[in-house]
């Protein structure tokens, strides 16, 4: 008989903690299965992913367990290093999970990495995975991260990126899990002198998905671009908590987030930019934009600035609106029905983030999958 853990045995974060104000896991725990399985997951075939192209490494995890048979390229190394960056509110959850830790040291030959985090469709699993990625100085790499599959399990993940001086990383994260899967993820990035990080996070799957990102611009001239896009319907819930920390001078950060929220779904986005006392000549701005498709849908967007330097350029803004009636009328006057017109306007709104995907084939595949999801949520 496989080992199991009941959700009631875990102390969940509550709304009393500011970072969890809009995502009360204590309330969500009532919707979880009676017990989670801690047994290693089993599957007959490799997970189906959007990206099928060539890459230096394709590394696959199933419910937090590395799958060598489905992977190729140099495997990650097991690590027993305790992760001090894990959110304290989740430490009790991780203690009860089946947990693995790995580290990955890239080389100049690693131009394209595909990370696949799959979740078993046949069990309600509880798992945690920690992965450290070291990017050497003067290197350039594209990382495609996909979250797929699932049933009614809960996955916890911590991804740590360390960029060396003059490194350049394109990181695309696609979350298209099954409609009942729950995912709680953390990300911590450190950028050395003149390192550049371009991140694109796109989510349209899962029942509950939360990503807490801390981006540390620790070197002079470091640069970070963070793009996020969510397409939500039914009772989906997505929560992004992003903190950009400017610790050195002459650093640049751009934060752009867009959400399309329908039915009874909820989008949460909290973006905070922190500028330390010595981080002069900081150039930072963030803009949060959301579309509401239903009177029952909800958006909670909060951009923040905390500045301790006096020679900076920082700005932020947030908007929430509906589809433009005039634009809908124009498209319908050109022969489109209402559903087609709405779908086209939503894709136009999403395109600002979709176009940041660097690989053309993956960009088209993601756009098609995102559009298919939106069409399911669009009334005729």
TrEMBL record:
Signal peptide: none annotated. It comes from the Bacteria. GO terms for biological process: iron-sulfur cluster assembly. Residues 122-349 form the SUF system FeS cluster assembly SufBD core domain. InterPro entries: Fe-S_cluster_assembly_SufBD, SUF_FeS_clus_asmbl_SufBD_core, SUF_FeS_clus_asmbl_SufBD_sf, SUF_FeS_clus_asmbl_SufD. SUPFAM superfamilies: Stabilizer of iron transporter SufD. This is FeS assembly protein SufD.
């Amino acid at each position: 008989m496989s080992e199991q853990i009941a959700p009631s045995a875990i102390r969940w974060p509550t709304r009393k903690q500011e970072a969890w104000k809009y995502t009360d896991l204590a309330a969500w725990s009532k919707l979880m299965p009676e017990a989670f399985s801690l047994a290693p997951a089993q599957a007959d075939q490799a997970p189906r992913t959007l990206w099928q192209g060539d890459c230096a490494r394709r590394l696959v995890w199933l419910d937090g367990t590395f799958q060598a048979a489905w992977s190729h390229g140099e495997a990650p190394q097991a690590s027993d290093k305790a992760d001090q960056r894990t959110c304290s509110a989740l430490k009790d959850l991780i203690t009860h999970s089946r947990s693995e830790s790995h580290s990955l040291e890239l080389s100049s030959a690693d131009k394209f990495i595909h990370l696949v985090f799959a979740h078993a469709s046949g069990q309600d699993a509880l798992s945690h995975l920690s992965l450290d990625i070291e990017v050497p100085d003067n290197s350039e790499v594209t990382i495609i991260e996909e979250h797929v599959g699932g049933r009614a399990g809960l996955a916890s993940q911590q991804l740590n990126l360390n960029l060396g001086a003059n490194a350049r990383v394109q990181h695309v994260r696609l979350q298209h899990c099954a409609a009942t899967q729950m995912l709680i993820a953390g990300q911590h990035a450190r950028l050395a002198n003149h390192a550049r990080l371009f991140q694109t996070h796109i989510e349209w799957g899962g029942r509950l998905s939360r990503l807490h990102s801390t981006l540390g611009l620790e070197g002079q001239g470091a640069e970070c671009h963070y793009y996020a896009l969510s397409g939500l319907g039914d009772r989906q819930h997505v929560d992004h908590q992003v903190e950009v920390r400017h610790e050195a001078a002459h650093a640049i950060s751009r934060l752009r987030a867009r959400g399309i929220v329908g039915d009874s779904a909820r989008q949460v986005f909290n973006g905070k930019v922190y500028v330390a006392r010595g981080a002069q000549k900081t150039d930072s701005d963030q803009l949060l934009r959301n579309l509401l498709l239903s009177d029952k849908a909800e958006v909670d967007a909060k951009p923040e600035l905390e500045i301790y330097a006096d020679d900076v350029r920082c700005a932020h803004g947030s908007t929430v609106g509906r589809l433009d009636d005039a634009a809908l009328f124009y498209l319908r006057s050109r022969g489109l029905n209402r559903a087609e017109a709405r779908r086209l306007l939503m894709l136009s709104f999403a395109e600002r983030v979709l176009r940041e995907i660097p690989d053309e084939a993956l960009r088209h595949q993601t756009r098609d999958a995102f559009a298919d999801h939106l069409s399911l949520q669009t009334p005729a």
